[in-house]
Amino acid sequence: MRLVRRLILIGLLLILIPYLLTPLYAAGQPVSTLMIWRWITGAPVERTWVDLKDMSPAMPRSVVGSEDAKFCNHRGIDWNSLQSAIDDAQEGEISGGGSTITQQVAKNLFLWPGRSFIRKGLEIPLAMWIDFVLSKQRILELYLNIAEMGPSGQFGAEAGSRFAFGRSVSNISAREAALLAAILPNPVTRSAKTPGPGVRRLASRYVARSQSAELGRCWDS
């Protein structure tokens, strides 16, 4: 019985660790759990941190337009999109929607890749906590520096941009930013460097979305 209590206590402490660490991530250059795992296993990792203010303005606009158009309005969770994703799952359909940028930051910083109800159950309250503790600007900055953006260990927009276009994310065009956004669901099979027809179509759509007046600019404040 004592062993069970200890295991429960250890489990609770592990769950609390991300909540304690989140305020510390208001500054610094944290890494993702996937980056840590790749380091442990000897896989390549390439990441150069770039502050949000130093990126091309097209980069955050493209990512918000493609991944989370309601980013400026929700508090970490887009409940309508989440419900739609749940409905699709119940009907046996595979849905790529439902996760906000804040949820992806929670997953990348503290959890593990892949889909499971356990991970989603941990991710939702953690995303709400991240949105409460950190500014929208910081959340987007974290995302653009820890998201996987290349096929061979490129993490963050800077590494992804240099791999795909040979230059810094500070100097890319709206089209190039949209190409990077288009590969985010799976940068291993999708390429911004040699985009296929599907990626090119998505990029064209994301360029238009990024220029929408309804998108908001909460990260500029």
Write up this protein.
- The chain is mainly alpha-helical and 221 residues long.
- The chain has one domain (1-218): Penicillin binding protein transpeptidase fold (Orthogonal Bundle).
- It contains 10 helices and no strands.
- Helix 3 (58-67) runs parallel beside helix 9 (174-182), helix 3 (58-67) packs across helix 10 and helix 5 (101-110) crosses helix 6.
- The termini are far apart.
Architecture blueprint of SSEs:
Elements: H1 2-21, H2 33-41, H3 58-67, H4 79-90, H5 101-110, H6 117-133, H7 136-146, H8 156-165, H9 174-182, H10 197-210
Summarize the structure.
This protein has a single domain, classed as Penicillin binding protein transpeptidase fold, CATH 1.10.3810. 55% of the residues lie in helices and 0% in strands. The protein is globular and about 60 Å long.
Question: Which terms summarize this structure?
Answer:
221 residues, mainly alpha, Penicillin binding protein transpeptidase fold, 10 helices, globular
Number of strands: 0
Q: What is the typical, i.e. mean, pLDDT? A: 91
Structural domains: how many: 1
Label the overall shape: globular
Structural class: mainly alpha
Biggest β-sheet: count, sense, barrel? Answer: none
- The appropriate CATH architecture is Orthogonal Bundle
- Using only C-alpha atoms, the radius of gyration works out to 18 Å
